[in-house]
């Protein structure tokens, strides 16, 4: 007992410091012990979670490489996985027994005590990931933790934290000692007080000081079969045979364009259909050769020429008559032989196949249009540039209708103006130019051009008169573009002639307009989804997800320049009380008004976001870091949020708690740790 009494400090200051030291050491030791244990478990759990994420990321690259047998890439992937990771080794074992094993660099200098290493090793397990592609196993990827390194890092952290705690304890004790001594120093003034009393100053006082995107062939075959049958079966029945032949000829005249040609090629006989088709008189035809009646083409570029011969000629020819209108004939020229086997004359039989050819052309044209629509549709599903898609729509419209002029006109219903978004062949108008159009005011057209439309009133005459005149437009077709019943503009094609647009033309242009409208709706929907994903639905401020991505971007961008980033975290105090007592709607209004006040506190170099609940954050970027500027902004925020909020006719007071983190001073390269410091 006397021994302990001898250790007892003599002065009050020393005794208080000793008692505080014992209490602080006791609580500090207990707290640090619990903290270190919790940190050990949490750190190991984070390492295990990080390892699972890391092996999943690495496994994707390994799965892509193992299918093609690219083991070098697998090795490089393992090397990258080991780099700056908590793993001691990375192994890939394929099904054939082949092994790729890589070891991490040597452990850092110094080692943790064996009991820490054993504790860490007991809580960490190797991470195994089967490599499976398309249901087929290719092997196993295994990552082994470097327990020694992790334990050493934890031990180093413990030592550093302990040293910091000891340093903090010493500083605290010194400060407390100073404060205690300073406080007790006032006792020294008792001496002067005593002296004053002794000197008779009865009113004297001891002063104390107070200290935040194929008919004719079948007909001829039938005639031949009939003639052969008649010759074989009736022999000399010439009259009957001639009667039959005359009937066949009459039938042929009814369905075919027939003429007889001499051996030299001059026309000697024509039927009525031939006269009508050639647009010549019968007398004129009997003076011409067969290839002089029409300008014939056997193909797109070669003229048709017939040379009399002993063989049947047949083929398709495109004929142009006096009116310039083209016609297609399926032509067969048959030589009629005399008794000596020489050619007596030729019979030329034509079948008008113009309708069939036009149908084929229509099918091909429709196929071409469908292909253009498909290509445009594919682009409309993926193209993110709306202007480029508009240009493609105008070009596709012109190509599909084989016209040289097209335009995409966007209408502003507020200003009653028209903006030329894209054009083809309108060289007298600049893209992006705008002009007033009275059609949007239901005023009659003054352009004088004929505009076709899918509606009877032809109300889509949106090109101005000067553009119509300058571009030589005489006819056109414009189709409305509507998104969710909202009129966006028109897609138009124009011709320099009196062009007659068909239903197919309208349908084609309507399809393009619908695809363009769908693409615009998709674009608008995507923008809305992005907005909803990045912004808080209540305050319309950026949300936590946006803030996290924004911080990563600016921090990764600023690691190579001397700029700085500051984050101010704001928590509204007493918000829960307002929410509980006045209702959630009032609480929502409080958050909305708080968000507005925070936006009023920042400049163009700052971003304010709502993290959730009553938590907000401000990100400030500096060209030159200024601690005083950040503190001033924080004080401004606290002051702004401390002013009364008028909610439901009542003034409500809340306050704000703020935390500040400055990059790169409070964290480098790690956004999460950096934010935690705030």
From TrEMBL:
Write down the species.
Pseudomonas savastanoi pv. glycinea str. race 4
In this protein, which residues make up the domain named PAC? 313-365
Q: What is this protein called?
A: Sensory box protein
GGDEF domain ranges (all copies): 563-678
Q: Which UniProt keywords apply?
A: Membrane, Transmembrane, Transmembrane helix
Q: Which PROSITE patterns match?
A: GGDEF, PAC
Q: What InterPro entries does this protein map onto?
A: Biofilm_reg_signaling, GAF-like_dom_sf, GGDEF_dom, Nucleotide_cyclase, PAS, PAS-assoc_C, PAS-like_dom_sf, Rev_trsase/Diguanyl_cyclase
UniProt keyword Cell inner membrane, yes or no: no
Q: List the transmembrane segments.
A: 16-36, 154-180
The UniProt record lists the keyword Disulfide bond: no
Do you know which NCBIfam families this protein is assigned to?
GGDEF (TIGR00254)
């Amino acid at each position: 007992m006397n021994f302990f009494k001898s250790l007892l400090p003599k002065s009050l200051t020393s005794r208080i410091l000793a008692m505080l030291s014992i209490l602080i050491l006791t609580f500090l030791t207990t707290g640090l012990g619990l903290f270190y244990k919790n940190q050990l478990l949490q750190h190991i759990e984070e390492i295990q979670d990080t390892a699972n994420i890391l092996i999943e990321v690495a496994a994707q690259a390994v799965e892509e490489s193992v299918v093609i047998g690219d083991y070098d890439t697998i090795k490089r992937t393992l090397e990258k996985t080991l780099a700056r990771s908590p793993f001691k080794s990375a192994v890939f074992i394929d099904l054939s027994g082949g092994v790729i094993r890589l070891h991490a660099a040597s452990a850092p200098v110094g080692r943790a005590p064996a009991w820490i290493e054993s504790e860490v090793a007991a809580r960490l397990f190797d991470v195994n990931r089967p490599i499976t592609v398309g249901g087929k196993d290719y092997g196993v990827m295994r990552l082994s933790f470097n327990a020694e390194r992790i334990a050493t890092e934890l031990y180093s952290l413990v030592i550093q934290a302990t040293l910091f705690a000891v340093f903090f304890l010493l500083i605290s004790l010194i400060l407390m000692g100073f404060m205690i001594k300073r406080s007790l120093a006032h006792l020294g003034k008792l001496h002067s007080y005593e002296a004053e009393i002794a000197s008779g100053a009865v009113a004297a006082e001891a002063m104390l000081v107070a200290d935040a995107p194929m008919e004719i062939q079948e007909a001829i075959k039938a005639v031949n079969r009939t003639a052969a049958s008649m010759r074989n079966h009736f022999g000399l029945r010439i009259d009957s045979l001639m009667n039959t032949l005359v009937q066949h000829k009459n039938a042929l005249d009814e369905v075919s364009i027939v003429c007889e040609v001499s051996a030299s090629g001059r026309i000697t006989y024509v039927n009525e259909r031939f006269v009508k088709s050639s647009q010549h008189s019968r007398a004129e035809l009997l003076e011409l050769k067969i290839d002089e009646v029409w300008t014939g083409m056997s193909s797109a570029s070669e003229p048709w020429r017939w040379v009399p011969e002993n063989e049947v000629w047949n083929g398709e020819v495109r004929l142009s008559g006096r009116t310039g209108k083209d016609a297609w004939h399926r032509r067969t020229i048959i030589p009629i032989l005399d008794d000596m086997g020489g050619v007596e004359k030729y019979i030329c039989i034509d079948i008008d196949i113009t309708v069939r050819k036009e149908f084929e052309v229509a099918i091909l044209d429709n196929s071409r249009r469908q292909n253009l629509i498909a290509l445009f549709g594919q682009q409309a599903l993926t193209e993110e540039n709306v202007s480029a898609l508009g240009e493609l729509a105008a070009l596709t419209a012109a190509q599909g209708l084989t016209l040289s002029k097209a335009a995409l006109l966007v209408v502003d219903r507020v200003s009653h103006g028209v903006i030329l978004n894209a054009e083809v062949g309108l060289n007298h108008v600049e893209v992006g130019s705008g002009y007033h159009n009275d059609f949007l005011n239901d005023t009659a057209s003054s352009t004088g051009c004929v505009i076709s439309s899918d509606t009877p009133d032809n109300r889509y005459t949106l090109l101005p008169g000067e553009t119509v005149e300058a571009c030589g437009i005489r006819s056109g077709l414009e189709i409305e573009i509507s998104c969710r019943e909202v009129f966006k503009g028109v897609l138009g094609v124009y011709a320099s002639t009196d062009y007659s647009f068909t239903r197919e033309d309208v349908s084609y242009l309507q399809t393009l307009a619908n695809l363009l409208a769908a693409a615009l709706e998709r674009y608008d929907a995507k923008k809305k989804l992005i907005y909803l994903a990045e912004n808080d639905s209540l305050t319309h401020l950026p949300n936590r997800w946006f803030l996290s991505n924004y911080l990563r971007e600016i921090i990764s961008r600023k690691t190579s320049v001397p700029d700085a980033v500051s984050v101010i975290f704001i928590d509204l105090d007493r918000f829960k009380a307002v929410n509980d007592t006045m209702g959630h709607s009032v609480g929502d209004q409080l958050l909305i008004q708080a968000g507005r006040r925070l936006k009023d506190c920042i400049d163009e170099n700052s971003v304010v976001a709502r993290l959730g609940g009553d938590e907000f954050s401000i990100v400030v970027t500096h060209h030159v870091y200024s601690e005083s500027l950040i503190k001033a902004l924080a004080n401004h925020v606290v002051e702004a949020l401390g002013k009364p909020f008028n909610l439901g006719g009542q003034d409500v007071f809340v306050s704000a708690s703020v935390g500040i983190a400055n990059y790169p001073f409070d964290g480098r390269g790690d956004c999460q740790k950096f934010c935690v410091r705030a």
